Amino acid sequence: MNMIRKLTPLTLAVTLACTSNLMRPAWSSPQFTHSSERYAAQSSFSSSDWVTLNPSVHPTTGRAVSLWSTYYHIYQAQEITNGYPLLDPSGRPLAYLSHRDWCYAALQGTVQVQDRWGRLTTYNFAGRGQTVQMDCSAYFKSLSPATLRKTGRVRFGLARGPHGDGAGGYRLVPYRTIAVDRQRIPLGSVIYIPAARGQQIRLPNGEMILHDGYFFAADVGSAIKGNQIDVFVGSHKRSPFPFITSNPRGTFEAFVVQDRQITEVLTRIHR
């Protein structure tokens, strides 16, 4: 991998004020702006989870890379009485789901469960038990018998982040986290995608903002290889980004940005 050309350090201010839905003029004054402090309890998403980056140095001075993208979301389920238990590694039940929801949670590796009082709890993959707990063949007919057995042995643990945990101790942040092949893009890298800048997105707290184009490598996946990235879109089942085609031929230009202050801000919101 070529060395990344270091950008001129920025002088960046973090403001705690609420912002409007409009992006400031590109590359005008260096600053970070927090999103609105409106909070929706059901989303567990606070103003500190999104910081709009607006540096004075154009990020396309970083190393250019050609990428293609897929996207992934967190699976959501309703807890039920007399359901099938999500077990932790010691065999202790954490929540009870329908047969279908249990299987999809095990396959996805992360699930957000709503209890009867409307409270949300997120669980992550935490290993596998010795024996198969659930037969999921009715839902995943294309999976091999070996993969189905692994799926039926999944154990869960409480996630640190409200939207689940990534790799390397990072938590997932909707529309900011990307899963990468760490041989191509190391964890903790900042990627700028010009095609994402200015795209309108709805944050988990309901606020509409314009994306600034910056993403953070905080997750990996066994199927993510080479120049593919996988964009985390939270609980939404569709991607708002036109550059995501889920097709290896649908490549786009991106830039690896090495700037200490930008990296520190994105690292902080992923911890």
Automatic annotation (TrEMBL):
Pfam families attached to this UniProt entry = 3D
| 3D domain location | 176-237
Choose any GO biological process term that the UniProt entry carries and state it: peptidoglycan turnover
User: Domain of life, per the record?
Assistant: Bacteria
Q: Which GO terms describe its molecular function?
A: hydrolase activity, hydrolyzing O-glycosyl compounds
Cite the source lineage: Bacteria, Bacillati, Cyanobacteriota, Cyanophyceae, Desertifilales
* Organism in which the protein naturally occurs: Roseofilum reptotaenium AO1-A
Q: Which GO terms describe its cellular component?
A: outer membrane
**What is the name of the protein in this document?**
3D domain-containing protein
Q: Which SUPFAM superfamilies match?
A: Barwin-like endoglucanases (SSF50685)
Which positions, given as ranges, span the membrane? none
Gene3D superfamilies membership: RlpA-like domain
